[in-house]
């Protein structure tokens, strides 16, 4: 067995991989929410459709998207493995009482939060990613060329109040997940320092509120815009 296999089959190695994939997915969220903010531009969807076309045709972006898929799968798989291992190793009773008094709710329920977020990702991929690749999408023409009108797809999806509620609730759960995961990732990487840890926790808390709030604001904005 190679040192790589030994490392990533150990508890420490699994936590390391969880931290690395988690931080990569945080970077992905920053890029994703930045692009989606074009929905607010008020230009009839031109900037968003041009952005979506670039994201689906640029070869470097395509490579990064495959890395994102792999990171999501690895993050989920190793989270399940760690949860099972920790549950088997943890005594019942006193340890559970002690854990509840010494840790936050979201840190004790990362598995539940992660499962809900995974369900949301599947729904999200079905509504948009699958539509983008295999759905019947109308075309729209601008001076820069002809594009698939993904803006229209998004507007149609978020005219459904049920889907809007699902997204908003899922973003709340994502916020709880990020609030613990952000600081935990740096701790796993050994980047704890009395001078920098408070700043990391502050940035993590701010990030876990701001990014999910921005994501949630989009379906809310589109839904109420569709009522006018």
From TrEMBL:
Signal peptide: none annotated. CDD domains: SQR_TypeB_2_TM. SUPFAM superfamilies: Fumarate reductase respiratory complex transmembrane subunits. Keywords: Membrane, Transmembrane, Transmembrane helix. GO terms for cellular component: membrane. InterPro entries: Cytochrome_b-558, SQR/QFR_C/D. This is Succinate dehydrogenase. The lineage of its organism: Bacteria, Pseudomonadati, Bacteroidota, Cytophagia, Cytophagales.
